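## tool: complex_structure
## caller: assistant
## args:
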Amino acid sequence: MADIRNNFVGIKSPNPFWLASAPPTDKAYNVERAFKAGWGGVVWKTLGEEGPPVVNVNGPRYGAIWGADRRLLGLNNIELITDRDLYTNLREMKQVKKNWPDRALIASIMVPCEESAWKAILPLVEETECDGIELNFGCPHGMSERGMGSAVGQVPEYIEMVVRWCKQYTRMPVITKLTPNITDIRRPARAAKAGGTDAVSLINTINSIVSVDLDNFAPNPTVGGKGSHGGYCGPAVKPIALNMVAEIARDPETYGLPISGIGGVTTWRDAAEFLVLGAGNVQVCTAAMTYGFKIVQEMITGLSDWMDSKGHRTLDDITGRAVQNVTDWQYLNLNYIAKAHIDQDACIKCGRCHIVCEDTSHQAITSVVNGVRHFEVMEEECVGCNLCVNVCPVENCITMEPLAAGATDRRTGKIVDPNYANWTTHPNNPMARQAAE
Amino acid sequence: MERLGSGHQGGIATGIVAGRLSEAQYETNFSDLHPRLDRHEALVAADRCYFCYDAPCMTACPTSIDIPLFIRQISTGNPLGSAKTIFDQNILGGMCARVCPTETLCEQACVRNTAEDRPVEIGKLQRYSTDIAMEQDRQFYTRKAPTGKTIAIVGAGPAGLAAAHRLAMHGHSVTVFEAREKSGGLNEYGIAAYKAVDDFAEREVDYVIALGGIEIQHGKALGRDFSLSDLSGRYDAVFLGMGLQGVNGLGIEGEDLAGVEDAVDFIAALRQAKDKASIPIGRRIVVLGGGMTAIDAAIQSKLLGAEEVTICYRRGKENMNASPYEQDLATANGVIIRHWLAPKSILGKDGKVVGIEVEYTAVRDGRLAGTGETGVIAADQIFKAIGQNFSASGLGALQFEKGKIAVDAEGRTSIEGIWAGGDCVGIGEDLTVSAVAQGRDAAESINRALAAGARPATAVA
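## result:
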């Protein structure tokens, strides 16, 4: 059995699956249920400063997009940080941590960008004996209008400053949660590192209008006839999150900085992808909000079974394993040539590969051969783009088959070169470096 | 209450009697076989469509409805647009959604069968859209400016109605001559009651003729009230869509006994009966034949309270014209289907049927022949469902082919200015949907001919 115990910046949990700071972690009742279901850790819903708590809208807070069979693909929310009294939260956190000493409990914090505000709240949080804090520099809606959340996360100097205060005023590990609503995720990550953060977590939600009510001409969710942009999450954002995690993982300036991966994790496979791209653990929200807490059981068994099947013993065996294979486009091997191949036994003859290739790509797939409906790749036209693979409804029906070195590419008539060659030395590249003499 | 649920009250009466069941049981037995999908069901079903390129379902549809498009319109919340996509090709899309043997047409061709053995529910989805449009009485078509041309149509069945609608759209004035009291043809008289409940056939006719420019004269039969030459002299074009009138006979002893009936008459009477309890039915029924008529007669006999219903078909299961789905529906309703049995004689007592002698059959040297072995099945009512034939009169010099009107691909007959379609012609399958396609295509051919300003050359020499 693989050992999936997690040690993230010294915070231990029985597995790498934490619930992210969000509605599911707003109070003891939910968190107790989550721990009972098997979650390894919980980042408590973001605490604000002492005093009257924030208020939420009392109309709809969520919007969504769906795939076939109304599977939820993306969720948008306009809920703010906790709207419960600070001390109620702190009291419950302390009790929950006491009840579940083996689980990770992290306090998410968002207070104004003033040293005094951070200095005031940190000792109160420390008192709960939770395992660490997460700085919410991510929420893109509501709180950002008050100079908090993503308003901080979008200014690297503020990130560095606040992280520095936190490291100064608490002994707890500091995780800095980043907003994806920036142009280059490496800048805020570098700032957090410069401030002394123990780790970063990402991504927070993405600015979004999830849909528009066409009867009322207002964005969804519509509150009294108006809508506001919200924070987008769920399976649809996973690709964006994976890229941002990888960007930080392979940036020489932040290389080795622990990352808690967040964004659309729904299955063990999603989690494993974050881990191999450099995340030390993952945080989950939308999947739980779609299916309930039980999904963690699939994640735990799935990750463990996969590790067993591949001979990986601990999370350290897999964390970051794919980082070295993330590169820039310019370094991709232009001598690697693949062609699509359609398994005729698996083909159901829907013809979608043909029509997308014909209408939108390279006219490389037949529709009729000898008067019969038949879909076959014409290698002399196929550029190996993979579009047909992606639109085919049957998994593994269409596969990409690499051409062996020495074979002839029927499209170009050229022999496949066994040597690696990329754009940096390509003759068509005006900036090409001279090959070594 | 379930179909065939509580069944009989107070024992089973012998002989052909009415009122075998409770009122509630009749109502349940003859309720809609497949209630319409609700919105959620429709969305779930529509999600399964792959929107295939050059979709095989569309090719398999005799009227070439753009099925992927109409299903996509359902998934995007546009059932009216979906209905228009259907009606563009098939103005009787509502009835076709109910009676088409989809399992041998569009749904058989669905690519979902290849990997899952479960097609998209195209028929039910078609009904979903068309029902919504018809309930809202949403008319999608308007007539073009009047052309001054007049067209006579014989028969207000699926072929005639489809032709009438398309011709009226083109601005022509259409007069339909219908021999029966009601329009609809087999849609009104020939479909199992549970497939077209709530007077759907009549409502559909109303929906079609609401376009305008179509007059239907009932009780006017070709050969009795007028001849073909009467029509061709008075109208700019004629379309014949009178279907089949004759019923094949058995030609065996005992066929005249009381209790031996044509299945088509039984089905028609049942359809027209407001009170199903008024239809007398035997205790033991034998239905002869292997097509849809045999199945419809057998199932409905069972639903009327017959104790024992047996279909005897002279060939094997694979030879039956009724689809496997329909065969299963029959057996699920308690009908026994026996193959390789041919009627030899009908046995009677006091002028009434008491049974049927059958002979086992086999294919020998490529021909069906009796084996000499016989048996007797007790029966007090026998339905003949061994096919219909064309027996109209008053057609003058019109040419025939294998007993049906000879036509070319667009429905032109041997006489110029006269077109034909539906069951009375020798092409296509005898299905509602084929009749609609032929009526529609003949209408387009007529329109082209009239627009060309000259009568077309004779198509069939």
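## assistant note: The CA atoms of residues 75 and 233 of chain A lie 5 Å apart. The interface with chain B takes residues 68-70, 346-352, 354-355, 367, 373, 393-394 of chain A (CB under 8 Å). Handing back to user.
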